């Protein structure tokens, strides 16, 4: 996935830990010159822990490749991301990369979104807008959009950008490209966890230890 003298976007979540372990191993063994741009506080800590070279989008606005996980991947490589709350930075970093590669375990593999992942589509919102946005989403697309509550803190989850997250539990399959655009146009919405037409390849780690590769369908 990574070659010498590359700038690499490092995603967030459980599977990325393994990818960064392997990347750090290759940097040491092959004396690679790699610069890493994180998508979250967690990713930043991971890069520093491994002694990898840390940068940002100010210094490196163009990335050679971004590697990230996903909460669910459908047959056409549309993703739901943001279970860990870092959807906005993840999408920004993925959008700056020439190649966006996803690593996930086999349980994230679905024919259609919502089959495996039952927590809905995360939507990052400006705090004062969470009620109007929640109502607008439910009214236009059905289902319900619920404010994500924190576990070890009283009140809602607060993102790295000091915003709130709504989890939209949709009822049926949608035209995800249209829905993504429509939700983004609602005032107060910062970003959605729908990644449409962004991933160019997904590597699934299978139960038996093998790897299954999926590329987007050829239209």
TrEMBL record:
Top EC category: isomerase
This protein's pathway: Carbohydrate degradation; pentose phosphate pathway; D-ribose 5-phosphate from D-ribulose 5-phosphate (non-oxidative stage): step 1/1
Pfam families reported in the protein's UniProt record: Rib_5-P_isom_A (PF06026)
Keyword annotations: Isomerase
GO MF, any single term: ribose-5-phosphate isomerase activity
Homology family: Belongs to the ribose 5-phosphate isomerase family.
SUPFAM superfamilies tied to this protein: D-ribose-5-phosphate isomerase (RpiA), lid domain (SSF75445), NagB/RpiA/CoA transferase-like (SSF100950)
Enzyme Commission designation: 5.3.1.6
Reaction(s) catalysed (UniProt annotation): aldehydo-D-ribose 5-phosphate = D-ribulose 5-phosphate
Keyword check for rRNA-binding: no
InterPro entries in the record: NagB/RpiA_transferase-like (IPR037171), Ribose5P_isomerase_type_A (IPR004788)
A GO cellular-component term linked to this record: cytoplasm
Any single GO BP term: D-ribose metabolic process
Organism of derivation: Pygocentrus nattereri (Red-bellied piranha)
Highest taxon of the lineage: Eukaryota
Protein name: ribose-5-phosphate isomerase
Presence of keyword Transmembrane: no
């Amino acid at each position: 996935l990574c070659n010498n003298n590359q700038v690499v976007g490092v995603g967030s979540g459980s599977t990325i830990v393994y990818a960064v372990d392997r990347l750090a191993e290759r940097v040491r063994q092959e004396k690679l010159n790699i610069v890493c741009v994180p998508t979250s506080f967690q990713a930043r800590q991971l890069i520093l822990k491994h002694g990898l070279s840390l940068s940002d989008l100010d210094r490196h606005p163009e990335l050679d490749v971004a590697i990230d996980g996903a909460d669910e991947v459908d047959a056409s490589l549309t993703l739901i991301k943001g279970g860990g709350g870092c959807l906005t930075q993840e999408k920004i970093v993925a959008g700056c990369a020439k190649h966006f590669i996803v690593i996930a375990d086999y349980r994230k593999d679905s024919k259609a979104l919502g089959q495996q992942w039952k927590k809905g589509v995360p939507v990052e919102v400006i705090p004062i807008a969470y009620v109007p946005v929640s109502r607008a989403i439910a009214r236009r697309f059905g289902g319900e959009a619920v404010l994500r509550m924190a576990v070890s803190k009283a009140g809602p989850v607060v993102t790295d950008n000091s915003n709130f997250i709504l989890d939209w539990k949709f009822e049926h399959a949608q035209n995800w490209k249209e829905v993504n655009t429509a939700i983004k146009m609602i005032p107060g919405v910062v970003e959605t966890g729908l990644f449409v037409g962004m991933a160019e390849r997904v590597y699934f780690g299978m139960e038996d230890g093998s790897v299954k590769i999926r590329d987007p369908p050829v239209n």
